[in-house]
User: Which sequence fits this backbone?
């Protein structure tokens, strides 16, 4: 259960990092 949560959070962070690369908006990573 906790591992699943960690994976989801990891995916969210990865998507945020991609968003920063694409849009250049650090706010995406902070949220």
Assistant:
């Amino acid at each position: 259960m906790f591992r699943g949560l960690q994976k989801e959070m990891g995916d969210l962070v990865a998507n945020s990092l991609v968003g920063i690369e694409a849009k250049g908006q650090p706010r995406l990573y902070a949220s």
Summary: The mean pLDDT is 69. The first helix runs from residue 2 to 23. The radius of gyration is 11 Å. The chain is about 85% helix and 0% strand.
